[in-house]
Amino acid sequence: MSYYFPSPFKQVDLPKTISPQLINCLNSGKSALKTLLKSLDLPVKSKIAIPAYVCSDVMSSVESEFLVPVLFDLKDDRTFWTEYNFSKILEENIKAIILVHLHGFIHPDTEQIANFCKKNYICLIHDAAQSYGIDEEKLTESNGIIYSFGPGKSTSAAGGGWIKSKTGIAGLKVIKNSSVFSFENVKAKFFFKSRLFGYRFSRVELIGNSFINVISNSSTGIHNMTQFQKQAASGILASLNEVSVLRKKRYSIIKDKIRDNKNISLAYDDGKGQYFKAVVYVNNNPDKFSDYLSKNEIPFFSLVKKIDPEKLSSEPLNNFKKNARLLFEISTETSIPEKEIERVATVLASY
Questions:
Q1: Which of 159, 126, 144 is nearest to 233 (CA)?
Q2: How many CB atoms lie within 10 A of CB 218?
Q3: What is the pLDDT of residues 283-341, one digit of tens each?
Q4: CA nearest to 96, candidates 132, 72, 73
Q5: Per-residue pLDDT tens for 4-18?
Q6: Which helix (H) or strand (E) holds 123?
């Protein structure tokens, strides 16, 4: 089944006022990360620590700034967290760490990593693209935080990225503004509609969206967020307190149902997540589980569909090889009717 991850929005109505929080906002999370990397002013070919298990935009952002990504393996505990090996970081003379906070949770080693970076004069970027709403007080020791309003995020809206930093950010002053009638605005509106639960494009919209995607794939420009994107972002920020309660309830339905299943489990839950998705770890045979979900019409996403670690790194990445394909994301977003979540939970419990 094709990946589908809805937004919390149920309709197209957006607030007319823009949240005053929304400064240093760009057209994508990738643009935000590239801009924040640029602001570090590191020498060309400086090494940057990133997870092996992460969106490919993280690696491409590092490479686009003429920096060298160094991949770090998953922890060996059936979870999606990366082991930022301190000895390796020092041996490799790594200049910056991109600490990724996945699936609405704070990385469990955040305090230790931040202290290590401060002690060793290593730059630290918090990639919380998926995880707006986590405790920012635990992310203060850094060169900046990035968030995203793109797909599969706690703040999925109309796309766009957001940088939060205590210091000035080099590069923002040269970014072009997007006009109301810009290509970026049209792209954002198509994206927004595509994320409304149950919305289906008309034939004309399908053609238009396909055209937009072709142009978008060849475009590398960095722009400010459009007015429409800022309206959508403001809407989701204003509704987070309300949707957080409903997300947690939906997540709990799945958690309680699969508690006694010996074949699957939740990959991580510290009780402090955003709960807009449930990340399921299947003990073995991911293809069988994928087929089971598809047969039962449960949309899902696997971050790593085709894994070839040898092409990613000279390192063994043993835990990545073993566990990455066994992690499946299933939405618990509030726009999905609760009865559908109950059906999903029952299907999962029966696996």
A1: 159
A2: 6
A3: 989 999 999 999 999 999 988 765 555 555 556 788 998 899 999 999 999 999 999 99
A4: 72
A5: 678 888 777 788 889
A6: strand 123-127
C-alpha distances (whole Å) from 99 to each of 118, 125, 190, 230 are 14, 6, 31, 26
pTM value is: 0.91
CA angle 91, 95, 98 (to 5 degrees): 105
Number of Cβ within 10 Å of residue 40's Cβ equals: 18
How would DSSP label each residue in 247-313?
HHHHHHHHHHHTTT-SSEEES---S-S--SEEEEEESS-HHHHHHHHHHTT---B-S-SS--HHHH-
Helical packing angle, 227-257 and 183-194, nearest 10°: 20
Q: How many CB atoms lie within 10 A of CB 321?
A: 17
Q: Is 317 in contact with 71 (CB distance < 8 Å)?
A: yes
Type of residue found at 47: K
Residue 311: Cβ-neighbour burial (10 angstroms; 0-12, 13-18, 19+): exposed
Quote the crossing angle between the two packed helices 227-257 and 338-349, to the nearest 10°: 40
Residue 245 φ/ψ, nearest 5 degrees: -65, -45
Give the whole-angstrom CA distance, residue 80 versus residue 86.
Answer: 19
DSSP 179: P
Say how many C-beta atoms besides its own lie within 10 A of residue 75's C-beta: 18
Rounded CA gap, 331 and 102, in Å? Answer: 14
How is 38-79 classified by DSSP, letter by letter? HHT-PPTT-EEEEESSS-HHHHHHHHHTT-EEEEEPBPSSSS
The C-alpha atoms of residue 174 and residue 155 are separated, in whole angstroms, by 26
